[in-house]
């Protein structure tokens, strides 16, 4: 098991399980979380998108871990 950071994405208050990704670096994960959250506020037809990172232990042979 390896400690990574899971990027959790909520759309309209519901977690989008298909959008969860795993990152080796917290700063990289947070960058994507911020960009996704900002994107949700700039759309013409506002869709509430919120994203954040949480530490999680995963098996890197079973899930893709991004740099």
Number of strands: 5
Rg, alpha carbons: 13 Å
Please give the largest β-sheet: 5 strands, mixed
Distance N to C terminus: 17 Å
- Overall structural domain count: 1
Global geometry: elongated
Mean pLDDT: 91
Strand content: 35-45%
Structural class: alpha+beta
Instruction: Return the string of H and E elements.
Output: EEEHEE
Q: Low-confidence runs (pLDDT<50, min 5 residues)?
A: none
Summarize the structure.
The protein is built from 1 helix and 5 strands. It has one helix at 26-42, and strands at 2-11, 14-15, 21-23, 49-58, 65-66.
What does this molecule look like?
The protein is of the alpha+beta class and 67 residues long. The protein has one domain (2-58). Helices cover 25% and strands 40% of the residues. The protein contains 1 helix and 5 strands. It has one helix at 26-42, and strands spanning 2-11, 14-15, 21-23, 49-58, 65-66. Strands 1, 2, 3, 4 and 5 form a 5-stranded mixed beta sheet that branches. A hairpin with a 2-residue loop joins β1 (2-11) and β2. The longest helix has 17 residues, at 26-42. It is elongated. The mean pLDDT is 91.
Helices and strands, with pairings:
Layout: E1 2-11, E2 14-15, E3 21-23, H1 26-42, E4 49-58, E5 65-66
Parallel strand pairs: 3-5
Antiparallel strand pairs: 1-2, 1-3, 1-4
Question: What features would you highlight for this structure?
Answer:
5 strands; 67 residues; 5-stranded mixed β-sheet; 25% helix
